[in-house]
Amino acid sequence: MLAYMSSMVARKPTRVISVGGIKIGGDNPIVIQSMTNTDTRDVKATVAQIKALTKAGCELARVAVPCIESAKAIFDIKKQITIPLEADIHFDYRLAIESIKYGADKIRINPATLGGLDKIKKVVEAAKEHKIPIRVGINSGAVEKDIFKKYGGITAEALLESAMRSVKTLENMDFYDICISIKSSNVPLTIKTNMLLSEQTDYPLHIGITETGTIKSGSIKSAMGLGTILYHGIGDTFRVSLTGDPVEEIYYCKQILNALGIRRSGVEIISCPTCARTKVDLISIANEVERQCEDIIQPIQVAVMGCAVNGPGEAQQADIGIASGDGHGVIFKHGKVLKKVSEAKMVTELMKEINAMVSA
User: Is the pLDDT of residue 249 over 50?
Assistant: First the structure.
């Protein structure tokens, strides 16, 4: 049996919405999302990317719908994927209606940018008819002019008021199947806004730091922002937004949840930074173990330690690991030594034990 880390994070109770075959909110697991960067009209490419995302652990995929042809493509995409599909709409209410018509499981809109109450109402009526939820998505670049003027710029309070105004608009149309997201590229602003939002509503929240940058810088900003928000029990679904292959986003989503002990999936590597006590090429060993563990989906914690100081005692919380000596290492399981191996066989023997554990 694998050792599971107990989380100290207490989720804030929220309403539950259904998106395709999954539920978001309440005590349901936090849902990992990503968004395709293919041309949605290219069904083959979009399906291939969603399948790759699914294999990596994505549970809800979002596609951009900038034109009617993209909305129509949803019908063929949906037939070939196994996770729910969300349509991302900006400005044109007709694209939202067409996306719903062609099978989107959820739509993302900013009601304030759709052109008036009559157009918003048509979108709401379509969502009601097809029984799909609406994500009210507010970004810092799309705050209404009067709210911007009221607060003298983009503040957490301005973003909050903008979001709640849109939510109230939907509620006035007797629509409550809602998820809310407020995002900014500014990490402290996003944290503060979501803290305030969580106090104001019990709708499920999608969290993210938008336009974070490349994989290198964006993963750090995302970990800081999303990790802080999640640690406070806020967030029912989230995405790490990176300029790169969307599959990379899933890796960082899972690592954030692993680090907080919220939801363990895949292999979490614990390895020491190395020092003068290290007598083996631990950096190469740790990287190779991580590479060979990429396709393991079971939650398991693997320690790769450089010396006796950081050995089985220091890493006894790990499910399995190895601690090195001078040209050799000892493999341990839950803090107990299993066997001694040479440096040349450290990765091979450790992987044998890991594979035996996950296949048991």
Answer: yes
